[in-house]
């Protein structure tokens, strides 16, 4: 076997992901969309989320987010509601903790109340 003389393999050539520190514009919900908090990861690109309108929905992580954005239990997400299936939704966007705090400050997310204990997981 030849001796390794290089300075790393494919991962070094790929480079580091430098867009983590980049600020992005805060996206608010539109009609047909709802804010939700992840309550359970189910695997196979699906999760169970508690929407802030009070219903629990089975959400599908779209392909664009599947390998690039890691979603964990307790994260705040934006879901697109399906007009033909009320119990299912599609994940559009994951908010980082700073963005979730900003949404709370703007009054988009409820401060406390019947779902106050759920929001406590977020920050």
Automatic annotation (TrEMBL):
Q: Which Pfam families match?
A: eIF-1a (PF01176)
Question: Subunit info?
Answer: Component of the 43S pre-initiation complex (43S PIC), which is composed of the 40S ribosomal subunit, EIF1, eIF1A (EIF1AX), eIF3 complex, EIF5 and eIF2-GTP-initiator tRNA complex (eIF2 ternary complex). Interacts with EIF5; this interaction contributes to the maintenance of EIF1 within the open 43S PIC. Interacts through its C-terminal domain (CTD) with the CTD of EIF5B; from the location of the start codon by the 43S complex until the formation of the 80S complex.
Query: Bias regions of kind Basic and acidic residues — which residues?
Result: 16-25
Q: What task does this protein carry out?
A: Component of the 43S pre-initiation complex (43S PIC), which binds to the mRNA cap-proximal region, scans mRNA 5'-untranslated region, and locates the initiation codon. This protein enhances formation of the cap-proximal complex. Together with EIF1, facilitates scanning, start codon recognition, promotion of the assembly of 48S complex at the initiation codon (43S PIC becomes 48S PIC after the start codon is reached), and dissociation of aberrant complexes.
Where does the source fall among the domains of life?
A: Eukaryota
Q: Which InterPro entries match?
A: NA-bd_OB-fold, RNA-binding_domain_S1_IF1, TIF_eIF-1A, TIF_eIF-1A_CS
Give the record's keywords alphabetically: Initiation factor, Protein biosynthesis
The annotated regions of Basic residues compositional bias extend over 1-15
What is the protein name stated in its UniProt record?
A: Eukaryotic translation initiation factor 4C
Q: Which family does it belong to?
A: Belongs to the eIF-1A family.
Q: What is the lineage of its organism?
A: Eukaryota, Metazoa, Ecdysozoa, Arthropoda, Crustacea
The family database entries (PROSITE patterns) matched by this protein are listed as: IF1A (PS01262), S1_IF1_TYPE (PS50832)
GO molecular function: any one?
translation initiation factor activity
Outline the segment boundaries, as ranges, of region: Disordered.
Answer: 1-25
Sorted alphabetically, which PANTHER family does this protein's record hold? EIF-1A
